[in-house]
Design goal:
Elements (H helix, E strand, L loop, with lengths): L2 E3 L4 E2 L5 E3 L5 E3 L14 E7 L4 E14 L2 E11 L4 E5 L4 E5 L4 H10 L5 H14 L1
Antiparallel strand pairs: 1-9, 2-5, 3-4, 5-6, 6-7, 7-8, 8-9
Length: 131
């Protein structure tokens, strides 16, 4: 389940970016790390304040299980260092801490078209175990 928090993710600002003469982008104090060969995850405009790493995101069209019930989600963000997935709303963030399952979940999201039943099923199983 995605847990609610009021954590804020910062947008990467022009102050953090500079370009080399070849047009290459460099980031001041922000890491651009992505160790996975995903097809659909792209670099986002946010970075994680916990580990200063750029979040990667994927446009999706899914209903996910959050602390506030099932939510329609258009965009899922991922921090590769913290091994977490985030749903970013205006003042709220819903976070799924994938831990050791991070890679598995990432590829589930990556390969996904419009069906995330697998994800919800595994999620429910875990919730039951915690009771
Ligand atoms: Zn992080």
């Amino acid at each position: 389940m995605f847990k609610k928090s009021s954590k804020k993710f910062e947008l990467i600002s022009p102050d953090n970016i500079y370009y080399s003469y070849t047009g290459e982008i460099f980031y001041k104090g922000i890491k651009n790390v992505w160790n996975y060969e995903t097809v659909t995850f792209k670099k986002s405009e946010y970075y994680c304040k916990d580990c200063n790493t750029i979040l990667y995101n994927k446009k999706i069209n899914l209903e996910l299980n959050t602390e506030d019930g099932i939510k329609k989600v258009n965009n899922i963000y991922s921090c590769v260092s913290c091994k977490k997935f985030h749903i970013i709303e205006n003042d709220l963030v819903y976070t799924y801490d994938a831990g050791e399952d991070f890679e598995k979940k990432l590829y589930e999201f990556d390969e996904l078209k419009n069906n995330i039943e697998t994800f919800q099923y595994v999620d429910r199983e875990k919730d039951l175990k915690n009771k």
